[in-house]
């Protein structure tokens, strides 16, 4: 019995030591992700999170080595409910958890205040969907985005309203968020530069459901186009109420409304082809179409649902961050940040390189309309 009692602890110690060695050879890399998983645009937030999970799972299945050690990527997902205060709380939580990098946030209104927290902690942040120009105009070397900004998106839509829709009079509504106001302002600049008259400027909020007062005012101005700066959860009911009031104007918006789900939210108020025109702050040219189609098919198989909007950009953002770590041979933010700044990577959404501010170079836009209740591409533009 004495011999046995001596052997068991020794065997246990050896097993523990071996396990400890194996554990020591595997480095855990924590990637934070923040999006609204609750609230009116939770469907878009979950879509973003799913894109991150796809990338993390793929990296782990491939077996990535950084600095001579096998790496296990872990996703730390947080919900900011599209609320700036909750967004900064989520950012601080990720900083306290010592994440190696952050993908997010979804909204400009949460991304911008959170970006200072990541900057002060020296943690790289890539937003897959925040389009307000202010995000990368703060001088934070940690801030990047993989989509075009509102200056490009709103301006393109403003010019499209004049050149293609032949609009003479336009009414503009925004939801007073950083995103909604930003894209509406840029649309207004683009439209005015083309000689379009802005006959009404109205405001709502990102949780509103009743628009009768502002729409009645707009109806009296008889606009050719109504532009809305905001998200699909508000745009859908707004379209329904426009139809009820007999407003026959075309409806335009940015990437926030440009979702597969808008037709469901708007019902028959979505109208026929060309009634609604929107732009996604990204776009895949024909040469990259197969990669995006493959991604959509893989997403559907994994999550039993269609891509809503920005999941492919989230996926690419994670992959770009991992690629920078590999190039630096380190997951230490201070060491891989310089590699991230000069990265050249081809993702499912196209080529990704950043300018000195952290904006994507040569960002593309995709213009869409809705036909038979389905989103249909009009064109990819730069």
From TrEMBL:
Annotated ranges, domain Leucine-binding protein: 29-373
Domain of life: Bacteria
Segment forming the signal sequence: 1-24
Any matching Pfam family: Peripla_BP_6
SUPFAM superfamilies: Periplasmic binding protein-like I (SSF53822)
Keyword Transport assigned: yes
This protein's UniProt keywords: Amino-acid transport, Signal, Transport
GO biological process annotation, one example: amino acid transport
UniProt similarity note: Belongs to the leucine-binding protein family.
UniProt-recorded name of the protein: Amino acid/amide ABC transporter substrate-binding protein, HAAT family
Organism from which the protein derives: Noviherbaspirillum humi
Organism lineage string: Bacteria, Pseudomonadati, Pseudomonadota, Betaproteobacteria, Burkholderiales
């Amino acid at each position: 019995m004495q011999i046995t009692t001596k052997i068991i602890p020794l065997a246990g110690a050896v097993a523990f030591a071996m396990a400890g060695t194996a554990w020591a050879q595997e480095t855990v890399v924590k990637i934070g992700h923040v999006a609204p998983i609750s609230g009116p645009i939770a469907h878009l937030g979950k879509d973003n999170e799913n894109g991150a999970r796809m990338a993390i799972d793929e990296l782990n299945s491939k077996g990535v080595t950084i600095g001579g050690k096998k790496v296990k990527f872990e996703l730390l997902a947080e919900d900011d409910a599209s609320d700036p205060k909750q967004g900064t709380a989520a950012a601080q939580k990720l900083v306290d958890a010592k994440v190696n990098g952050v993908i997010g946030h979804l909204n400009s209104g949460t991304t911008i205040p959170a970006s200072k927290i990541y900057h002060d902690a020296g943690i790289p942040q890539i937003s897959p969907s925040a389009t307000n120009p202010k995000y990368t105009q703060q001088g934070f070397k940690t801030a990047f985005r993989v989509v075009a900004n509102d200056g490009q998106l709103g301006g393109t839509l403003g010019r499209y309203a004049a050149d293609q829709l032949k609009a003479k009079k336009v009414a503009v509504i925004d939801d007073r968020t950083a995103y909604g106001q930003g894209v509406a302002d840029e649309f207004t600049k683009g439209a005015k530069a083309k000689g379009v008259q802005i006959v009404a400027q109205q405001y709502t909020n990102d949780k509103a459901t009743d628009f009768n007062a502002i729409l009645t005012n707009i109806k009296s101005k008889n606009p050719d186009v109504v532009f809305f700066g905001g998200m699909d959860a508000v745009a859908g009911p707004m379209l329904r109420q426009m139809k009820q009031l007999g407003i026959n104007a075309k409806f335009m918006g940015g990437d926030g409304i440009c979702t597969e789900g808008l037709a469901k939210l708007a019902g028959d108020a979505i109208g026929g082809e060309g009634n609604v025109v929107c732009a996604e702050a990204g776009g895949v040219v024909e040469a990259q179409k197969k990669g995006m189609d493959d991604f959509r098919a893989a997403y559907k198989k994994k999550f039993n649902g269609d891509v809503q909007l920005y999941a492919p950009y989230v996926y690419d953002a994670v992959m770009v961050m991992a690629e920078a770590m590999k190039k630096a041979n380190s997951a230490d933010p201070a060491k891989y940040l310089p590699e991230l700044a000069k990265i050249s990577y081809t993702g499912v959404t196209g080529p990704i390189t950043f300018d000195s501010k952290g904006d994507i170079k040569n960002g593309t836009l995709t213009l869409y309309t809705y036909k038979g209740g389905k989103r249909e591409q009009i064109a990819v533009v730069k």
